[in-house]
Amino acid sequence: MRSWMFGGVYGTVLASALLAALHSEGAPYTPTYDAAWVMVTAGAAALAHGYAHHMATHRPGSAVHRWRQLAGALLDEWPVVVACWPTVALLLLAGAFGWPEPAVTSTGLLLNAALLFGWGASAALRVGYRRRSAVLLGGADAAIGLGIAAANAVIK
């Protein structure tokens, strides 16, 4: 469960940061290209993260054993990619229906904030917080995630 939650939060924040950073700023808006870019970046981030975990946990063994460990570490990162799907779906819909970029970006960031709220609140409930505290923690987690996305957009 922890790996799923970690990957879900990481992927949701990554999708938010990319959505904010891919703002066209006068260039033609290409939401389907942006969707592809989010998926490629999520895949690369998942591979890099899984590879880093593999490198940090080397154990003695045969080459076959090391390849299996690497494959397992990479497969553990699938939640990062899956967590980007809501943003990718929104971008694909925007491309299909010609939705304007400001509305899509705002909607995507609000959607991801709601997802981060859910991740934070469910994690708090899972470890024993009461509902009110879990809601407050979920709100704080959503705010932190959006802050990270905003910071990424600013340094773009």
Q: How do the helices and strands follow one another from N- to C-terminus?
A: HHHHHHH
Query: What's the pLDDT, averaged over the residues?
Result: 89
Q: What portion of residues is helical? A: over 70%
Provide the low-confidence segments as ranges. Answer: none
| Radius of gyration, whole Å | 17 Å
- Strand content is under 5%
Ends distance: 33 Å
The coarse overall form would be flat
Count of alpha/pi helices:
7
Class based on secondary structure composition and strand pairing: mainly alpha
Outline the biggest β-sheet: none
- How many extended strands? 0
Describe the protein's architecture and organization.
- The protein has 156 residues and is mainly α.
- It is 82% helix and 0% strand.
- The chain is built from seven helices and no strands.
- It has helices at residues 2-21, 31-56, 63-75, 78-82, 85-97, 101-126, 131-155.
- Helix 1 crosses helix 2.
- The radius of gyration is 17 Å and the shape is flat.
- 31% of the residues are buried.
- The mean pLDDT is 89.
List keywords for this structure.
mainly alpha; 156 residues; 7 helices; flat
Short description:
With 156 residues, this protein is mainly α.
Fold blueprint:
Layout: H1 2-21, H2 31-56, H3 63-75, H4 78-82, H5 85-97, H6 101-126, H7 131-155
Helix pairs in contact: 1-2, 1-6, 1-7, 2-3, 2-5, 5-6, 6-7
